[in-house]
Amino acid sequence: MQPGMSLDDIIARKRTQVKAKKSKKMVTPVEEEKEVNEDDEGEYQEAPDSDEEGDDDNDMGIEVEGDDEDVDEGGFGTGRDEDAGLEDDEAEEAVLEDESDEESGSEGSEESDEGSEEEEDEDESDGDEEEEESEYQKERKRAYFAPESDTPVEVAETFATMNLSRPILKGLAQVGFVQPTQIQARTIPVALMGKDICGGAVTGSGKTAAFVVPVLERLLYRSRQTATSRVLILCPTRELAIQCHSVAQKLASFTDITFGLCVGGLSRNSQEVQLRTRPDVLIATPGRLIDHILNSQSFTLDHIDILIMDEADRMLEDGFAAELAEIVKACPQSRQTMLFSATMTDNVDELIRMSLNRPVRLQIDSANATAARLVQEFVRIRQHREEDRPAVLLALCSRTFKHRVIVFFRSKAAAHQMKMIFGLMGLHAAELHGNLTQEQRLASLEEFRDGRVDFLLATDLASRGLDIKGIDTVINFNMPQNYAIYQHRVGRTARAGRNGRSVTLAGENDRKLLKLAIKNADKKLVKHRVIPQDVITRYRERVQDLTESVKEIMAEEKEEKALRQAEMEMKKSQNLLKHEDEIYSRPAKTWFQTAGEKKMATDAGKAALNDPKKRKSADTDSPKRDRFAGMSRAKRRRLQLSEEDQMDIKSHSVAIKSAKKALKPTKITKLAAEKAPTKPQDQKKKKKRDVDFSRDLADGSKKGVVAVKKRGGESKRGREKKDEKKEHRGKLGKLRGNKAFKSTKKHKRR
Ligand SMILES: Nc1ncnc2c1ncn2[C@@H]1O[C@H](COP(=O)(O)OP(=O)(O)OP(=O)(O)O)[C@@H](O)[C@H]1O
C-alpha cells in the first residue's frame, strides 16, 4: 500500500468519522449509553455509540459455526446445562464469581473449575479419541526405532558438563541458557553421536536449541577448505524459518559458522546470491528450497550431512508430502536425520517416508500434553448463540485480556474483518494470515513483538513454533480442526516454564475436542468462564452498529487494491517492453509437479487437516476415472500436449541438475580424510562410515562426537546415479535437438 492508503489509515479515518457523527448526536445521551460507559473501561468508552436504528441483521461476514435454528439447551460437552461438570454449589459460586468480576472489569481471578468426575466418566464412555495400539503396531515400532538401551542414561545437569566447546558455551551463556531443558539434555548427546532422532516435547520446551546446539558443535570441526552447505533445517512456515535462523545465529555468535535463509515471499535473487556462498547451515521452507534446487544454477543438496525437520508431523502431512519427498530425494542417503515436534508422530508409515536409520525416539512428554503452567479456560457458545462469538471476543479483549493476546481464527477473512472491528473500537491489533504479503506478515509480527499493538489476529499460520516473549493469553475464536492444532495454538503461551492462559470459545460442534482438551489437561487448571448475557448483548449491539462502517472500509480497501493492481500491471508491461529481450531469454522456471498434481497435493493437505483419519498420500492417490473423460477431442488433445510439454521441461531440469552435479568439485571432506592420518585399527571402521561430515571431526572422541553410520550402499547408489546422469544427458541432447526451442518458447513468462 502507498503511504496514506494503508488499511490502518482507512480504519482510523472511518473511526474519526464515526466518532464525529456520534458526538453530533450526543447532545442528550440515552440512558443505555450511560450504563455502558459506567460498566466498561478504557477504549470502549470512546467507541462509537449506536446512533442509528438497530440492525437486526448482524451481517458482519464473520465466520461462525453452527445452525441457529437447531437449538439444544443442554450441551457443552456433557449434555448438561451451563455449569456442566460442576457440583451444584461450585457451579453457582463459579457463575457468581465470574459475574461479580466481569462487572468490576478486573482481570484474572474469574475462573471456576470444570471437569468433574461426571465429565470424565462421560469422556471415557463416549468420545475417546485415542485408538488402542495393536500388538502388531507395537512390534513394528520396536523393530523400527532404536532400542532404549542405545540412548545414554546419564543426563547432564548443566551445559557446562555436556562436553561442548567454548564458543558454543559462550553462545548459550549469551542468550541466558544455563541449564538444559529435558529435551536438550536428552537430545544433544545422541545428536552428537550422529544418530537419527524422533524428538517430542511439549510446546515451549526448547526444541530449537536441542537441535541447533549439536549442529553447531559438529560444524566447529568441519573442514574449511571449501565452503559447503552441510546442514538443512526445514520449517513449515516462513515466520518459523526466520525465527529459527535468528536463534541459530545468536547461539553461533562466537563461531565462524554461516547461515543462509531460503524462504518464500522474500527476494529470490538475493537468496540465490547468498546460496552461491554456500552457507554452512541452510534454513528453509520446502517450496522455495525446491525452487532453488530446480532453478538456481549450481545449487544442490548433495553435501547435506544433517537434515532437520522442525514441526515434523506437520511436514509429514499430505500437503507437504510430495515436496518433502522431492527434498529427501535430493539429499544424500548417508545423512543424519532429526525430526522434532510437540505433537511428534511415532507412526511408522509416516516416518518411513523420511528414510530414517533406526531412529532414537526421545519422547519427553506425551504427544497430547500441553504446557505445565497453562490455564485452559472455555467459554460456552450455545448453539443458537453462534452469532455471539464476535461480541464474546470483544468483551474479553476490551474488559479482561487487554495486552499481549493472540487470537486465532479459522479463516483469513474472519481475522481480517475482526481487525477492522478492533480498529473501529480503538483496540490496537495487527493481523497475520496468508492473504498478506510477506512484508506485511513480518511487519505485523514485529508490531506485536515490540508491543506496538496489543492483539495479534491470526490464522493457524501462527499456531506452530512462534516464540514471542510475554504472550499472556491465547484466545481461540473457534476451536481448531483437530487437537494437535489446539495444542500448538495454546502453546504460544506458558512457554519455557512461564504462566499462561488460553480462552477457547467452544460451541456445540466442538464437544469432542473440548472433551479431549479437558481429558489431557491438569483438571485444576481447567476453567469455565461465564460472561454475563447483558454484557454480550451490549457488545453485540456495538458490533451491529459497526456493520456499515466495516462494509465501507472493505469497499474502500477493494478500490485501493484494484488501483494498486492496475499500477502494478502497468509497471509490469512497461518493464516487459523495456527489457523484452532479456526477460524472454531467461530460462523458463520449472517445478517438479504439474499444476494438477500440485492442486491434488493441496487438496489432500486440506482434507487431512479437516479429518486426519482420512489421510491419503497425495503421491499415491490415483484418479478414480479417466482424467479426460467427458472432454471434447480437441480439449483432450490440448491437455495431453500441454502435459507432454511439462514432462519435457521436467526432464530438461533433471538434465540440468545432473550437469550441475557433474561439474561440482569432489567432496571436500573426502580430501580432508585423505590427508588425515589414520590409525590402522580405525581403517576398517572408516570404510563403513563413509559419511563426510563425521570425517571432518578432528577429535570426535574427546567431544563425545562419533561418526555417523553410512546407510544404503553408496557405491551401488553411486552407480545408479551415474546411469541416471548418462540417461539424462542423452535426453538433454535429444531435447536440444528437437523440442528445446518449442517448449521454452511456450513456457516463457508472460
Ligand atoms: N535451556 C534453556 N534455558 C532457558 N530458556 C530456554 C532454554 N532453552 C530454550 N529456552 C527458551 O524457551 C523458549 C521456547 O523455546 P523453543 O521456541 O525452542 O520451544 P519449542 O519447544 O521449539 O516450542 P514449539 O513446540 O512451540 O515450537 C524460548 O524463548 C527459548 O529462549
Automatic annotation (TrEMBL):
Domain DEAD-box RNA helicase Q: 157-185
Annotated organism of origin: Modicella reniformis
Substrates-to-products reaction catalysed: ATP + H2O = ADP + phosphate + H(+)
EC assignment: 3.6.4.13
GO MF entries: ATP binding; hydrolase activity; RNA binding; RNA helicase activity
Region: Disordered, residue numbers: 18-145, 602-750
Top-level taxon: Eukaryota
Composition-biased stretches (Basic and acidic residues): 617-628, 672-702, 711-727
Pfam families, sorted: DEAD (PF00270), Helicase_C (PF00271)
Positions with biased composition (Acidic residues): 30-73, 84-134
Protein's name in the database: RNA helicase
Keyword RNA-binding listed: yes
Gene designation: DRS1
Coiled coil: 536-583
